[in-house]
Amino acid sequence: MKKQFLLRSTSMSAMISKKKLFACLLCVSVCIILKKHVANMVLTHFPQRSCKKCLPECDLGAMKRFNKSVEPFLSAKCTLSEVAFTWWKGLQNEKRDFISYKATVDHLLKMFPAAPDVVGASPDRCRTCAVVGNSANLKGSLYGTLIDFHDVIIRMNQGHTKGYEADVGTRTNIHIMYPESAIDLDDNTHLVLVPFKIMDLEWLIQAFTTGFTGESYRPIKSKIKANKDMVMVVNPDFMRYVHETWLEKKGTYPSTGFMAFVLALHICDEVHVFGYGADKDGNWDHYWEKLTDPNLRTGIHPGIDEYKIIQQLAEKQIVTFYTGL
């Protein structure tokens, strides 16, 4: 009996050892599979640091839309023609003349740097940009970490981050706005003004000095908190180029979001687009607020055409487009 008991005990111990070995092997296999899966997710969802192509010289040029010679920002060497001024003054019914415009720009350029470099171009560096729109399709997207991965993060108008970090990220390098959509910025963010009238240029000057006292179709911040040495102003001729060349004169003028998108094509090596597109009813709805006008659609802007162009570039793998939820 004792001998039989010992044999049974030995047999049971062997079985237990085999089970332990099997469990260990299974655990190792699962870990290897998970590791590969995570690696594939990173490769799939996170942009790589080596550029596949140079945007300006390749496909964009072939599409006959991209024009590298158009200066995106105002500077002393970048002069606006009277033809371009005539187009620009019609955007919001500017009454003043070309001389008034030039005098205001001269004053502005004495206050702010011509065009501070955002991320310097380099043969061994690929500047990846995330252009983050304000669409409600960002809600629940969990794109935040992916957005923050990029070198340059571009936001616009009243785009929020606080309270929405998981979906929209935390960092901002460039914030594009006009006076009626202005918000305060930290010292590390470039304020990029899109001017639609001479008053917008005056607002920028006064918001950093005496305080703005003028009136517009919406309330405007009198003062703004931002780094004066990181201010840039979009060239009105660049706005005309986006409207006439990219949008073929559709709509009254391009949206701030679409101008931000084309701007990214001019200053980045890789462009990744987030938060663009209307909701299921065709309205431009923001991720941080409830839509108050159910018939808004895309306002005076050719929203459908702007979206189609981004889609086309994404299909040609010129940009990467994250459509959200």
UniProtKB/TrEMBL annotation:
Compartment(s): Golgi apparatus membrane; Golgi apparatus, Golgi stack membrane; Secreted
Pfam families named in the record: Glyco_transf_29
GO biological process: lipid metabolic process; sialylation
Entry GO MF terms: beta-D-galactosyl-(1->3)-N-acetyl-beta-D-galactosaminide alpha-2,3- sialyltransferase; beta-galactoside (CMP) alpha-2,3-sialyltransferase activity
Source organism superkingdom: Eukaryota
GO CC term (a single one): extracellular region
Pathway annotation: Protein modification; protein glycosylation; Glycolipid biosynthesis
InterPro entries xrefs: Beta-gal_alpha2-3_sialyltrans, Glyco_trans_29, GT29-like_sf
Enzyme class: transferase
Oligomeric form and interacting partners: Homodimer; disulfide-linked. Homodimer formation occurs in the endoplasmic reticulum.
Protein family per UniProt: Belongs to the glycosyltransferase 29 family.
Protein's name in the database: CMP-N-acetylneuraminate-beta-galactosamide-alpha-2,3-sialyltransferase 2
Lineage of the organism: Eukaryota, Metazoa, Chordata, Craniata, Vertebrata
